[in-house]
Write a structure and sequence with these properties.
Layout lengths: L6 H7 L6 E4 L2 E4 L7 E3 L4 H11 L4 E6 L9 E13 L18 E3 L4 H11 L14 E6 L2 E12 L2 E9 L8 H15 L3 E5 L5 H9 L3 E13 L7
Parallel strand pairs: 9-10
Antiparallel strand pairs: 1-2, 2-3, 4-11, 5-10, 5-11, 6-7, 7-8, 8-9
């Protein structure tokens, strides 16, 4: 197995276990952190454990190796094919961005409302009030307004994911995403870790940027948000 196989499960059972909620063979992040969930294996036992974890009417965001197929007791809410890209080139992201004169700031708890607002507008993926606790998040502010950000989300031994790469629509085309990505990639590589990320397959513009920064597709995953319709009873 590659270290990034079943990456959400690995993150929740290793470097990010402090954020995990568990039920039998399923894990999920605390809801205020992110909606990402996982099971050890995508079999009946895994889905039963997931149902017990999220409860009746609860949802889970999964990374699957194949498109989601209907399962009894679950409904499909949303999803998309999602390449997992990896940057295993030590010389990647060395070229400075044309936006290098812009100041980068580290984001934290006091920035959370602005981060959630920007993520809600641009929809880079699940983002909640405590997502920033997962790792380093960087941003660019113009006249005090947060107009671009990117940060670290999933972490497993030897690898760190870059996520929430987004720019306010009024500030596109200025190289802000590239600047933030370049800084994050360099920081991750300097720790002796390998950067990786997930991106919607139809986000051609982002994929082209990531390829220019040294990322390559490792595998095609399928993101699925599913809702548990089963009425659970206490034993």
């Amino acid at each position: 197995m590659h270290p990034l196989d079943n990456v959400i499960w690995t993150a929740l059972t290793t470097r990010q276990s402090e954020f995990a909620e568990s039920f039998a063979h399923a894990r999920r992040f605390v809801r205020e952190v992110t909606s990402l969930s996982a099971f050890h294996y995508p079999n009946d036992e895994g889905y039963e454990s997931l149902a017990g974890l999220v409860g009746t009417g609860g949802t889970a965001g999964l990374f699957l190796t194949a498109p989601y197929t209907p399962r009894r007791g679950w409904s499909y809410v949303a999803g998309a094919p999602m390449p997992e890209m990896i940057c295993d080139n030590s010389g990647a992201a060395a070229t400075p961005s044309p936006a290098s004169q812009v100041s980068i700031v580290e984001l934290g708890r006091t920035d959370s409302p602005d981060m959630v607002e920007l993520a809600a507008l641009t929809k880079p993926g699940p983002f909640a009030t405590r997502t920033h606790e997962l790792g380093t998040y960087l941003g660019i502010r113009i006249d005090g307004k947060l107009v671009a950000m990117a940060g670290e989300r999933l972490k497993i031994p030897g690898h760190t994911e870059i996520s929430a790469v987004c720019t306010h629509p009024d500030y596109l085309g200025r190289g802000y995403a590239r600047l933030l990505m370049t800084e994050l990639v360099q920081r991750i590589l300097s720790r002796g870790e390998i950067p990786f990320l997930h991106v919607r397959q139809d986000n051609v513009r982002a994929i082209e940027l990531y390829q220019r920064l040294g990322f390559r597709e490792r595998v095609l995953l399928h993101y699925a948000v599913i809702r548990n319709q089963q009425v659970l009873t206490e034993s």
